[in-house]
Amino acid sequence: MKFVYISLSGNTKAFVQKLVDYFAFNHAEIPVETLDVKELVKEGQAYPDLGQPYVAFLPTYLEGGNGVDNGDQEILTTDLRKLIAKGNNARNCLGIVGSGNRNFNNQFCLTAYQYSEQFGFPVLDTYEMRGLTADVERIAEKIVTVYGSEK
Questions:
Q1: What whole-number distance in Å separates Cα of residue 84 and Cα of residue 119?
Q2: Is residue 53 assigned to a domain?
C-alpha cells in the first residue's frame, strides 16, 4: 500500500506519519510506503507511474472567496493533481483523504471533492488540520476496507 501526499505546512505529513505508525502497530500485514510529492518536485524528479494501489492525501489551499460561487480555484497543491493525471495513476487510486480548516466553511476539503469528481475515485474521508487520534483510527480502518476489497 502506498500513501501519496503533498504537505505544505507539515499538517498532512504529520497525519500521514500517524497513519503509517497506526498501520505498523495494528495492520503490520499491510506494509505502507509513502511518497511526498513536494519532495519529488523539489528534487526535480519526473512524476512516476505508481503502478500499484494507493491512497492520496490532500490539504485544501484555495484562492480566496467562499468556495461556492468564487474561491474554488486550487493553488499550491497542483503537483499532486499532475501526478494523479499521469498515465494510469488515477485508475490505481483507491480514494482521496482531504484535510483543511473547518473555519473555511464551504471550502473545507473542497479540493479533495474536486479531485474525486475529476478522476472518478471516492473521497474516503476528511479531517481537520493535523487530525485527532479518532480521525487516524477511522480513516485507517476505511483504508483497510477499501484496500481489502481490491485484493
A1: 8
A2: yes
